[in-house]
Amino acid sequence: MTSTKASSPAAGLRFLLDTADRGAWAEWLPLGFFHGVTTNPVLLEAAGLPCAIPALETLARTAFDLGAGEIHMQTWGRTRDRYADHGRALAAIDGRVVVKAPTTVEGVAAAARLKGDGVRLTMTAVYSAAQTLVASALGADYAAPYLGRMNDAGHDGFGEIAGMARAARAHGSTMRILVASLRDPGDVVRLAEQGLDTFTFSPKVAAAFFADDLARQAVEAFEVAAESR
């Protein structure tokens, strides 16, 4: 890591928990290694929550009470006007809310308005390095590619996302490439080895970080030794 990157405000590994399940937040956020949480309308539906500002305000308060440093919540509405209106309402909840907008013409148009209002942004539904450059030129804080979905579609997701990071670094961008749709810890390790530093993943993937038989055996040996004294 170069000294320039180390001094950047974007430097450092960052994990986020990809779920709107408050029970999972209560389980994982107190461990201290998650920076915050990411949500979207599909995750809200899975958690039995409406995509509506009052419910999202309550959800954000819960996340912050549990120690989240930020929560990413997605705007909705199909048109740039509705994306912008909902995005402003989300940002007004708390300064720690990062508004997600799709990297489409309508989403980018809305995001430009939100950026002008000082709203923090994650550009989502990113599938190419070209989209990453759009997000960077816009001044977004994050761009979120979907690794698993890219691979499922027959793309070289790992190579494409590594290319996104190189393209961003090449012109000094401090925008984080927030890799989503991760299937196991090996995905995170493989991308981290290529310089990626920001990841969001499900509670299932989080649990897999600790599913190591050798570690469990070592801890059990420690405990047995401690109890023998």
UniProtKB/TrEMBL annotation:
Heme keyword on record: no
GO biological process: carbohydrate metabolic process
Keyword check for DNA damage: no
Secretion signal span: none
InterPro entries hit by this protein: Aldolase_TIM, TAL/FSA
Record's keyword terms, sorted: Schiff base
PANTHER family referenced in this protein's UniProt entry, alphabetically: FRUCTOSE-6-PHOSPHATE ALDOLASE 1-RELATED, TRANSALDOLASE
Protein name: Transaldolase
Organism per entry: Roseiarcus fermentans
